[in-house]
Amino acid sequence: MADLILTGASRGIGHALSLSLAGRQEGRLLLVARDRARLDALVTSIEQQGGHAIAVPGDLSSLAGARELGERLARTVRPGATLIHNAGLWPSRRVLTPEGLEAAFVINHLAPLVLQRGLLGTGHVRRVMAVSAGLIFKGRFDAARTPTGEDFSSIRTYCTTKLCFALAMRDVAAAHPEMDAVVLHPGVVRTDLGARPGPLGWLLSLVKRGWEAPEVCAARLTRILHRERWSPPGEARWLVEEAEQPWPPIAEDEATRRAVRETTDRLLASV
Question: 4-268, what's its fold?
Answer without folding.
Answer: Rossmann fold (3.40.50)
